[in-house]
Specification:
alpha/beta; Rossmann fold; Transcription Regulator spoIIAA; 4 domains; 5-stranded parallel β-sheet; 12 helices; 18 strands; globular
């Protein structure tokens, strides 16, 4: 029997999908890219974005129609708000939280599905083997890439930003045991993976929920760095997303010490106005954020700086928006993910008037996008003529070119039709640039060894 699995939303959902895939395949199901061929169809949902939820309803409407002509079992998991959960229970055959993933084989069998290889079912973890909150992390994922991997280090969130639904979909912060994280990282490094991204809603609060028996985020990074030193393998380690309130100089100093810890920091600011930050319940002010950026510039002078910004948050007036424009000019981000505010059911701000007109939100987004492009272009122009290490990660949209990423996660394209380079480090001479990308010339394919 074949299965089809869709994931929506963030990198954390992608990571969860990789573990769900492992459990299903351990039961003997064969993956298919075509929904019409599958007898088991699942979707990893995201209540954080309305478009993603709309897609779930569209998909299940189609799948339920198919049940009149063929045998089909459907399931849903992921980040799901209580209101959506109630509706999904009536539309899907199975609904489970990611914490319940070890029980999925039993759920499927109890639903009456004759699994393709039921004798394989014992290879899927049983509930008795695992702690209810962290057991699913011990399931080996079926990674989506042969050279890039996501490694979850925590789940949930304790920050309760008023615009965000994550604490209501994933619950409170739970740190994954560091022994499991480090074992997964080491296995990936030994298998030849080139980039590893540590995932969490607030990665730099890692371990704070288990301070008596767990290491800090800085120490976790240090031990990842030691894996790099001990193995002599070349790889780049990233982390996302840190919270400005919890960022410490110690974390930055550890990143500076180890070559395998990539010199790229994603530090969401969300707004450049203190009053808006208070309404967002971000628990820092612009001056505190400014101090963190100053530390980044001092300790990691070559690091690229990424951020997240919301425009048109409930009650944001023109002066407050202009303060965000000013911080964009001050911090000169290499990349910013800018989103127009939209209320999410369950989040605190959903109770407030969404009082900034859509056209005004679009204008503000356009203004910040122009600021971003101006600053990013300045950064990219400074790299012209230099030689940079890159990881080749795919083909470019332009025929005859491959696409790569610098250590700072800036996209570079270069002329080559040698697809065997994908998944390898290379050295490029930068010959040109656009606001958000570079163009280069292949100098050499780099060694897999560190250095």
């Amino acid at each position: 029997m074949k299965y089809h699995l869709i994931h929506l939303g963030c990198q954390m959902n992608q990571s969860d999908t990789e573990r769900i895939r492992s459990v299903i395949e351990s039961m003997g199901f064969e993956r298919t890219e075509h929904e019409s061929e599958a007898g088991l169809i699942g979707i990893v949902a995201c209540s954080v974005r309305q478009k993603a939820i709309d897609k779930v309803y569209s998909k299940i409407h189609t799948w339920n129609k198919w049940k009149s002509t063929r045998s089909l079992v459907t399931f849903v998991s992921g980040c799901i708000l209580p209101t959506d959960r109630e509706k999904f229970l009536k539309k899907f055959d199975l609904l489970f939280s990611i914490n319940d993933l070890p029980q999925l084989p039993d759920m499927i069998r109890q639903y009456g599905v004759a699994t393709p290889a039921s004798h394989h079912a014992n290879s899927a973890p049983s509930p008795a083997q695992h702690d209810a909150k962290t057991g699913y992390w011990r399931i080996a994922p079926s990674y989506s890439s042969e050279f890039e991997a996501y490694v979850p280090i925590q789940n949930g969130c304790d920050k309760f930003c008023t615009f965000c639904a994550v604490p209501y979909t994933r619950g409170r912060e739970v740190s994954r045991p560091s022994s499991e994280i480090l074992a997964e990282v080491e296995n990936l490094v030994e298998a030849g993976y080139k980039t590893i991204t540590l995932l969490g809603q607030n990665v730099n609060s890692y371990g704070l929920d288990r301070q008596s028996d767990e290491i800090s985020f800085a120490e976790l990074l240090r031990q990842v760095g030691e894996i790099g030193r001990r193995t002599g393998k070349r790889f780049w380690t990233y982390f996302t997303s840190p919270h400005p309130r919890d960022m410490t100089d110690e974390v930055l100093e550890v990143v500076a010490e180890y070559p395998c810890l990539a010199k790229q920091i994603h530090l969401p600011i969300q707004s450049g106005d203190d009053k808006v930050l208070i309404r967002m319940n971000r628990n820092y002010r612009v001056q505190q954020y400014r101090s963190v950026v100053a530390s980044i510039r001092k300790i990691l002078p070559t690091a690229t700086l990424f951020t997240d910004i919301i425009v048109g948050f409930a009650g944001e007036n023109e002066e407050q928006f202009e303060n965000t424009v000013l911080v964009m000019r001050e911090f000169r981000y290499t990349m910013a993910y800018i989103a127009m505010y939209s209320p999410r059911p369950g989040a605190a701000s959903a109770r407030w008037d969404d009082d900034v007109a859509v056209d005004e939100k679009k204008r503000r987004l356009h203004v910040l996008t122009e600021e971003l492009q101006s600053h990013a272009l300045e950064h990219n122009e400074r790299t012209i003529g230099s030689r940079l290490p890159v990881l080749v990660d795919g083909t470019d949209r332009k025929p005859g070119f491959l696409s790569a990423k610098t250590e700072g996660r800036v996209t570079v394209r270069f002329r080559s039709d040698d697809h065997s380079l994908i998944g390898s480090f290379a050295e490029l001479e930068i010959t040109g640039c656009a606001p958000l990308s570079l163009e280069g010339r292949l100098v050499r394919v780099a060694s897999a060894a560190a250095g």
